[in-house]
Amino acid sequence: MATMDRRLLKAATSGDAASLKQLASHDPGVLLGTTPPGNTCLHISSIQGHEELCESILALDQSPALLSAVNKDGETPLLAAVARGRASLASALLRRCRERQLSEAILRQDRHGCNALHHAVRRGHTKLALELVEVEPVLSRAVNGRSESPLFIAAMRNFTEVADRLLELPDSAHSGAFGFNVLHAAVRSGNLAIAKKVMETRPWLATEENENRHTPVHLAAYDGEINALAVLLEHDPSLGYLTSTDGDTLLCVAASQGHGGVARGLLEHCPDAPYCDASSSTCLHIAVLCGHTEFVRSILGLQQLGHLINMLNGSGETALHLAVRNCKPDMVAALQLHQDIDVTVLNSAGDPASRVLPDAANHTKALISTTAHQTATAAVNSTGAAISTPSDGAIMMNSSSGAIMMNSSLAIHQRLLGAAVCGNSAEMKHMALQTPGVLLGTTPQGNTCLHIACIHGHERFCRDVLALTTNQQSPAPAAPLLGAVNADGETPLLAAVASGHFSLASFILGRCRDEQLSEAILAQDKRGFNALHHAIRSGHRKLALQLIDAEPGLSKAVNMYDESPMFIAVMRNYAEVSEKLLEIPDSAHGGAYGYNALHAAVRSGNPVVAKRIMETRPGLAREEDEHMVTPMHMAVQWDKIDVLRVLLEHDWSLGYVLTSNGNPILDSVARQGYVGAARELLKHCPDAPYARADGKTTCLHQAVQGGHMELLQFFLGSKHLRKLVNIRDIMHETPLHDAVRKCNPKIVNALLQHPDTDVTVLNISGNPATWLLSPMTDHAKTLNWNEVSMLMLKADPEAANDIYNLHKQIKDRVTSESRKDIKTLTQTYTSNTSLVAILIATFTFAAAFTLPGGYSNDAASEGLPIMARKIAFQAFLISDSLAMFSSLAVAFISIIARWEDFEFLLHYRSFTKKLMWVGYIATTTAFATGLYTVLAPRLLWLAITICLMSVLLPVLTKLLGDWPVLKLRIHLGKTFKSELLDMV
Question: What's the predicted TM-score (pTM) here?
């Protein structure tokens, strides 16, 4: 369509029918013109509510084009009129549409999915709604973008007549937002008539669930709508037995909210209504957990539910257990009043309710003891083994079946165990001579005497044990002991290394090598650690090198945390060990959390190891950890400039690497704010990428958001990056928008000082940077907020009106919030000022009776001040009196202050502030003149000095107190405005 004539737009807006007719007489097609949003003159007139003008327009143009025209919001003139609340006009347009048989225009839905019936019901125009239903019943079938039907809205708004009419239409929609239906709405609004009508016409809706898994019956129980629940149950008593998808029964829902009346009403219709949820918790358990004491008393008084008092939930606890555990004395008392309560019922841990108090003295000990007993009992039941519990708490098990326990003939002898712990070789040798196989016995943990000796570091004992086994006639006589594995998966070698016995481990390693026991050397414990892992982690570098020489295969293993020996060595900065491992081509280099050895080199800041890794395994530089961070990204995040330099010198293309989620390295630099890393990166890669792959943000945005001033200045001074000052992010916002939102005047000023900054750029909402100050009401009285607003005004004088409107808007908002908090504000001001006022009044009152110079003892002037004739003394009396009077006035005004009157607070603050300054100046004057009276006759210079200091003190006080504001005033000059800073 053609663009609307400006004169026609003016006529349609003002309702000028004469001008419109004149325009149409010259050019009949002029009426079909549209504004940029797609509005015709009929739309404009409908929006403005000019009913007569609309009639004139439709009389001039008999074609259906105007009535059917749709603007960019998806609105016809009918929709535009209804949406603005023009009921009479909408009725007239509806008649015209019906006369011209324009069903599509009547049924039209706007871009939010709302049709004329939605808007009419939502705005409360019930007559218009009924008229719409009569004219076009199909309107009742539509749902909007939030799944709301006209019937649902009518039920929510309690429009019974409209709801009844819609329910008469068999195919009218009944859905609502959040999974609600019309019956949910009737329950929520408490409309029994609609609920009854729905049950008569659409009874199946009673079993439909919303997004919270609540049916209308559950919602009635949840909201405590007893009457609505009664209507539903009277129509269909079986609804009382409904269980939600989550397993919630109606009694459980009522219990969670404490609605005892709902429970009683439900049981009247359904005496055996279910009372347990999916977790086997009864409604009594739920009520106890939610703290609804009255509900508990209510249901325990009901015959149908009295038996719940001793019932266990899915965790094996009664309601009394829960009440005691949660320290609810009122609940415990309510439960104990029931005649059938059994306080001795044990929970699943074997404790009565009295033993589950969280602060019980011996609760933990008792619980552990009971658990140990139950564990032992369970073992007896499952294995048939005989169990004995010694005094030390260890459980000894003997079983004829070797599937669970070791045969008693292989158990280590108690004397041998003691000898291994103490390193008593003589005792061990004596036992070995008497019983040849005794050295192969193990503890319940699978430890041989060699394990025990290795753990305790008894090298001599280990040598003697292995010497004895070597003397036996066998191809590998020491193998059974050296290769034995305990319950932790440890060989003696692993046990020695893990326990930190370097010399002993070296000896055991030698014996394993002599016996060619590679498997014993390569063994990994249950956590995946081998001897090399432990040696490096414990810092035994010499042993680690010995292990690598003896068995290079150790370097290939990774533990359950994905850590390789190389990774641990690099993390601990063991360059020699790392170098040795890098010489093995197939040595593992992975680490925890997706790290590799190069990540570790960056983390430890070791450029030597990093260089060696780049020479041997350059591919590691592009691998990412679980946070999708490469070693390059990590180098800039940790500000490891030396390592970064090594990586870039070896492969400068690494500076252009993006992570899997599209983050460039400059983005990581900007997040941390490290200028050195940025400078080093741009030195090698002058055109390094600066924006995320998805265009969400640039590195300059990140620097602003992080408040990194030094990095920001570096970016703005960079020839490559200076163009970023006006580049927008995904929300169409420049870095200046972010700086204003953060309310950081230093960053805002730095951006405004850049010659290329455009302060007029609009974001996705059509707002310039200045308007981002609007939501920050909490900061409106701060120096930063005011400085930012004044800086923006100085940078863009054309936005003066916007700044003025913004200040007015914020001022109104701050005033409104202050009115809400008037009592606290009044208390704060009165308490502070009255305290100082009373203090001044106290010592000025005392000074009046301890006059400088004292009192005369002469008969003629006895009792009169000695200095009474001196001008300085008279000035002292006047200033002292003035100080006391003003401070007393402030103190008593504080007492009579009206606590909830904002205007009085403004008056009080202004008036008392002036009085306090008078009191302050008068007090310093009284001090100066009093001392001057005494000192002047003998020490005139000192008296004058004190007077000058007293005069300067109020001036200095004012200057120091207001210095931040004064500095801002000087900096901003004429653009400075203090109205928000001065507000209460």
Answer: 0.53
